[in-house]
Design a protein that fits this description.
Largest sheet: 2 strands, antiparallel
Strand order of the largest sheet: 1-2
CATH architecture: Orthogonal Bundle
Number of helices: 11
CATH topology: Hypothetical protein af1432
Length: about 210
Protein backbone atom coordinates (compact mmCIF):
# COMPACT_ATOMS: atom_id res chain seq x y z
CA UNK A 1 0.00 0.00 0.00
CA UNK A 2 1.28 3.44 -0.93
CA UNK A 3 1.25 6.37 1.46
CA UNK A 4 -0.79 9.03 -0.32
CA UNK A 5 -2.03 12.44 0.70
CA UNK A 6 -5.59 11.14 1.02
CA UNK A 7 -4.40 8.30 3.26
CA UNK A 8 -2.41 10.75 5.37
CA UNK A 9 -5.55 12.81 5.99
CA UNK A 10 -7.43 9.60 6.77
CA UNK A 11 -4.80 8.69 9.37
CA UNK A 12 -5.10 12.14 10.96
CA UNK A 13 -8.86 11.62 11.31
CA UNK A 14 -8.44 8.08 12.61
CA UNK A 15 -5.99 9.26 15.27
CA UNK A 16 -8.43 12.07 16.19
CA UNK A 17 -5.85 14.79 15.66
CA UNK A 18 -7.37 18.17 16.66
CA UNK A 19 -8.09 20.72 13.96
CA UNK A 20 -5.50 23.23 15.19
CA UNK A 21 -2.73 20.62 14.90
CA UNK A 22 -3.93 19.69 11.42
CA UNK A 23 -3.80 23.37 10.38
CA UNK A 24 -0.25 23.63 11.74
CA UNK A 25 0.75 20.42 9.97
CA UNK A 26 -0.73 21.59 6.67
CA UNK A 27 1.43 24.72 6.74
CA UNK A 28 4.50 22.61 7.53
CA UNK A 29 3.62 20.34 4.60
CA UNK A 30 3.12 23.39 2.36
CA UNK A 31 6.57 24.77 3.11
CA UNK A 32 8.12 21.32 2.78
CA UNK A 33 6.54 20.67 -0.61
CA UNK A 34 7.37 24.06 -2.11
CA UNK A 35 10.95 23.93 -0.82
CA UNK A 36 11.22 20.32 -1.99
CA UNK A 37 10.08 21.34 -5.48
CA UNK A 38 12.75 24.02 -5.76
CA UNK A 39 15.43 21.68 -4.43
CA UNK A 40 14.39 18.87 -6.75
CA UNK A 41 14.64 21.24 -9.70
CA UNK A 42 18.24 21.82 -8.57
CA UNK A 43 18.95 18.09 -8.70
CA UNK A 44 18.37 17.02 -5.11
CA UNK A 45 16.93 13.47 -4.80
CA UNK A 46 13.70 14.47 -3.04
CA UNK A 47 10.65 12.19 -2.97
CA UNK A 48 7.96 14.86 -3.00
CA UNK A 49 5.05 12.57 -2.12
CA UNK A 50 6.91 11.02 0.82
CA UNK A 51 8.10 14.46 1.93
CA UNK A 52 4.61 15.99 1.89
CA UNK A 53 2.88 13.08 3.61
CA UNK A 54 5.52 12.85 6.34
CA UNK A 55 5.31 16.60 6.93
CA UNK A 56 1.53 16.39 7.20
CA UNK A 57 1.83 13.54 9.70
CA UNK A 58 4.75 14.83 11.76
CA UNK A 59 2.55 15.70 14.77
CA UNK A 60 0.07 12.84 14.43
CA UNK A 61 0.76 11.66 18.00
CA UNK A 62 1.23 15.05 19.64
CA UNK A 63 -2.08 15.21 21.54
CA UNK A 64 -1.75 11.61 22.64
CA UNK A 65 1.75 12.32 23.95
CA UNK A 66 0.39 15.05 26.20
CA UNK A 67 -1.75 12.42 27.90
CA UNK A 68 0.80 9.60 27.96
CA UNK A 69 4.05 11.54 28.39
CA UNK A 70 5.66 9.64 25.50
CA UNK A 71 7.65 11.63 22.97
CA UNK A 72 5.35 12.27 20.01
CA UNK A 73 8.10 11.89 17.41
CA UNK A 74 8.96 8.44 18.74
CA UNK A 75 5.33 7.32 18.97
CA UNK A 76 4.71 8.73 15.48
CA UNK A 77 7.62 6.69 14.16
CA UNK A 78 6.28 3.53 15.81
CA UNK A 79 2.80 4.09 14.38
CA UNK A 80 4.07 4.55 10.84
CA UNK A 81 6.42 1.58 11.09
CA UNK A 82 3.57 -0.65 12.27
CA UNK A 83 1.51 0.52 9.29
CA UNK A 84 4.30 -0.38 6.90
CA UNK A 85 5.53 3.17 6.26
CA UNK A 86 8.84 3.09 8.12
CA UNK A 87 10.55 5.64 5.86
CA UNK A 88 7.86 8.21 6.65
CA UNK A 89 8.27 7.27 10.30
CA UNK A 90 11.97 8.05 10.13
CA UNK A 91 11.23 11.53 8.83
CA UNK A 92 8.66 12.08 11.58
CA UNK A 93 11.17 10.88 14.18
CA UNK A 94 13.81 13.29 12.89
CA UNK A 95 11.66 16.40 13.31
CA UNK A 96 12.61 16.15 16.99
CA UNK A 97 15.64 13.82 17.01
CA UNK A 98 17.47 15.53 14.18
CA UNK A 99 21.01 14.60 13.19
CA UNK A 100 23.06 17.07 11.20
CA UNK A 101 23.98 15.74 7.73
CA UNK A 102 27.49 14.79 6.77
CA UNK A 103 29.37 17.36 4.64
CA UNK A 104 28.56 16.93 0.96
CA UNK A 105 25.58 14.66 1.57
CA UNK A 106 22.45 15.19 -0.57
CA UNK A 107 19.63 17.12 1.08
CA UNK A 108 17.18 14.74 2.74
CA UNK A 109 13.46 14.79 3.47
CA UNK A 110 14.34 14.81 7.17
CA UNK A 111 16.14 18.14 6.84
CA UNK A 112 13.28 19.76 4.97
CA UNK A 113 10.55 18.66 7.40
CA UNK A 114 12.67 19.63 10.41
CA UNK A 115 13.22 23.08 8.91
CA UNK A 116 9.61 23.54 7.76
CA UNK A 117 8.32 22.77 11.26
CA UNK A 118 10.53 25.53 12.65
CA UNK A 119 8.95 28.03 10.25
CA UNK A 120 5.35 27.58 11.48
CA UNK A 121 4.09 29.19 14.68
CA UNK A 122 0.72 27.60 15.39
CA UNK A 123 -0.76 27.84 11.87
CA UNK A 124 1.16 30.87 10.62
CA UNK A 125 4.35 30.80 8.58
CA UNK A 126 6.93 33.06 10.25
CA UNK A 127 10.68 33.69 10.21
CA UNK A 128 13.02 31.56 12.28
CA UNK A 129 13.67 34.58 14.51
CA UNK A 130 9.98 34.95 15.34
CA UNK A 131 9.48 31.20 15.79
CA UNK A 132 12.33 30.81 18.25
CA UNK A 133 11.29 33.93 20.15
CA UNK A 134 7.91 32.29 20.67
CA UNK A 135 9.50 28.97 21.69
CA UNK A 136 11.70 30.69 24.28
CA UNK A 137 8.73 32.54 25.73
CA UNK A 138 6.69 29.33 26.01
CA UNK A 139 9.30 26.76 26.99
CA UNK A 140 12.38 28.65 28.18
CA UNK A 141 11.64 28.20 31.87
CA UNK A 142 15.16 27.23 32.92
CA UNK A 143 18.68 28.23 31.97
CA UNK A 144 19.23 24.73 30.56
CA UNK A 145 16.20 24.99 28.28
CA UNK A 146 17.22 28.46 27.09
CA UNK A 147 20.72 27.24 26.23
CA UNK A 148 19.25 24.25 24.40
CA UNK A 149 16.96 26.51 22.35
CA UNK A 150 19.81 28.85 21.49
CA UNK A 151 21.84 25.93 20.18
CA UNK A 152 18.81 24.62 18.29
CA UNK A 153 18.24 28.02 16.71
CA UNK A 154 21.88 28.26 15.61
CA UNK A 155 21.70 24.77 14.09
CA UNK A 156 18.47 25.61 12.26
CA UNK A 157 19.96 28.82 10.88
CA UNK A 158 22.89 26.80 9.52
CA UNK A 159 20.41 24.34 8.00
CA UNK A 160 18.53 27.24 6.41
CA UNK A 161 21.73 28.41 4.74
CA UNK A 162 22.34 24.87 3.44
CA UNK A 163 18.82 24.49 2.06
CA UNK A 164 18.75 27.86 0.30
CA UNK A 165 22.41 27.95 -0.79
CA UNK A 166 21.79 27.20 -4.47
CA UNK A 167 18.25 28.56 -4.74
CA UNK A 168 17.14 31.91 -6.15
CA UNK A 169 14.39 32.20 -3.55
CA UNK A 170 14.98 33.53 -0.04
CA UNK A 171 13.61 32.22 3.28
CA UNK A 172 11.39 35.29 3.68
CA UNK A 173 9.74 34.56 0.31
CA UNK A 174 7.92 31.68 1.95
CA UNK A 175 5.88 34.14 4.03
CA UNK A 176 3.82 34.57 0.85
CA UNK A 177 2.44 31.07 1.41
CA UNK A 178 0.30 32.50 4.23
CA UNK A 179 -1.95 33.82 1.45
CA UNK A 180 -3.00 30.26 0.61
CA UNK A 181 -6.28 29.32 2.31
CA UNK A 182 -7.28 25.94 0.87
CA UNK A 183 -4.05 24.19 1.77
CA UNK A 184 -5.26 20.63 1.16
CA UNK A 185 -6.29 21.45 -2.41
CA UNK A 186 -2.99 23.19 -3.08
CA UNK A 187 -0.98 20.25 -1.75
CA UNK A 188 -2.84 17.90 -4.10
CA UNK A 189 -2.37 20.19 -7.10
CA UNK A 190 1.31 20.73 -6.42
CA UNK A 191 2.06 17.05 -6.05
CA UNK A 192 0.64 16.60 -9.53
CA UNK A 193 2.62 19.49 -11.06
CA UNK A 194 5.35 20.69 -8.75
CA UNK A 195 7.35 22.66 -11.32
CA UNK A 196 4.53 25.05 -12.15
CA UNK A 197 2.17 25.03 -9.17
CA UNK A 198 3.70 28.00 -7.35
CA UNK A 199 3.33 30.19 -10.44
CA UNK A 200 -0.34 29.24 -10.77
CA UNK A 201 -1.15 29.70 -7.08
CA UNK A 202 0.76 32.77 -5.98
CA UNK A 203 1.73 34.37 -9.26
CA UNK A 204 4.89 34.41 -11.28
CA UNK A 205 5.89 37.78 -9.89
CA UNK A 206 6.14 36.44 -6.33
CA UNK A 207 9.04 34.00 -6.72
CA UNK A 208 12.13 34.46 -8.88
Amino acid sequence: MELTLDLAYELLRKEEVPEHIIRHSEKVALIALFLGCFLKERGEPIDLNLLTCAALLHDIKKMESIKTGMNHALSGYKLMKNLGFERAGEIIYAHIFFKAPKPGAPISEEEIVFYADKRVKHDEIVTLKERFKDLRERYGRTLKSLIRMTLLEEMTLLLEKRLFKNLKIRPEDFLLLNEIKEVKDVLKRCLESCTTCWRDIIGERSFP
